Amino acid sequence: MNLLLDSHVILWWLADDPRLSRKARRLIERADEAYVSAATTWELALKASLGKLEMPEGFIETVEEEGFLHLPVTPVHAMAVKALPWHHRDPFDRLLVAQAAAEGLRLLTAERLLAHYGDHVVVV
Predict the structure, then answer these.
(1) Which of 5, 20, 61, 80 is the most exposed place for a label (fewest CB within 10 A)?
(2) How far is residue 37 from each of residues 27, 29, 64, measured CA to CA in Å?
(3) Which of 48, 28, 50, 103 is nearest to 58 (CA)?
(4) 3: part of which helix (H) or strand (E)?
(5) Any residues with CB less than 8 A from the CB of 8 and at least 6 apart, and which?
(6) How, if at all, do strands 33-37 and 69-71 pair?
(7) Residue in 110, 105, 115 with CA at minimum distance from that of residue 20
(8) What is the reported pLDDT for 88?
(9) Where does the UniProt annotation place the signal sequence (predicted)?
(10) What are the tens digits of pLDDT across the range 44-87?
């Protein structure tokens, strides 16, 4: 299975945070490939600049060192948001759902509302 990690999931993984469930850890460890979206990097950088969270130093390099792949945001991903029903209003989450659907990935998240988007989302 190929995964796309939601923002909180990658932060919890990097911090070895106990909020990341055992199930989520197993899925990440067993994934064929796991991706971190450029949208996630943007969201975290934005929130860090506002003082809403602490972003790990060297985030981009750390993501790579952990074996994750970066997923760019393409025009196809951006347009795929248009077709999504409005189960959730967060623009970053909607883009991640669109990316997962477009790329055949499963979005790994703890955000229960995203489960309404179906098979492309794994809530843990």
Answers:
(1) 61
(2) 18, 18, 12
(3) 48
(4) strand 2-5
(5) 19, 109, 110, 111
(6) parallel
(7) 110
(8) 81
(9) none
(10) 999 999 999 999 999 999 999 999 999 999 999 999 999 999 98
Which of 3.50.50.60, 3.40.50.1010, 3.90.650.10, 3.40.630.30 would CATH assign to domain 2-123? Answer: 3.40.50.1010
Distance between CA atoms of residues 13 and 24, nearest Å: 9
**pLDDT over 90 (residue 95):** yes
Mark 32-64 as b/e (b = at least 16 C-beta within 10 Å). eebbbbbbbbebbeeeeeeeeeebeeebeeebe
User: What would the two tokens of residue 17 be?
Assistant: 């945070």
In eight-state DSSP terms, residue 111 is -
Whether the Cβ atoms of residue 59 and residue 41 lie closer than 8 Å to each other: yes
CA atoms within 13 A on the CB side of 40: 27
Residue 38 is classified by DSSP as H
